[in-house]
Amino acid sequence: MFLSVQSWRGVRTVVVAASLLLAGPALAQQPTPSALKTAGEIVKVTGALELFTPIVPGVVEQSRQFFVQQNPMITADINEVAAQVRKDYEARISEVTTKVIEIYASNLSEQELKDILAFYTSPAGKKFLVAQPKIVDESLKFAQEWANSLSDEVIGKMREALKSKGHKL
Question: What's the whole-model pTM score?
């Protein structure tokens, strides 16, 4: 199983989001402007928002398909309207950006945000951001191969056990 670079950025976002869930003590704090600024820098450096970029085009495309299914005879007009609606709504992704930054800043202390940003902007952090897609790709590939092997082993074990009970498989 191989994922695209965009998918890796999504994986990175999920990893960062999971770490936010584990940041227990920092929950429910009101973020300061400085914390919001630092969270915004983290989101930018990590590419975390790229996961959300396809939302508006995806919603418009789903809506376009809905209307085409309703009346395929007006597909040209539907396509024209969909293209305009997409342009009209593209700027609304900033609503997601703002909220994601608020979520980061609300779940981590200002110092934690600074430490995280310091890591991601350090030589090791930059290397990690570059290497992470390959690391995740290799890990997922190994996990898939391992799961396939385990599946064969489990099937064999279950088959033996069922045969020993007199079942023909």
Answer: 0.65
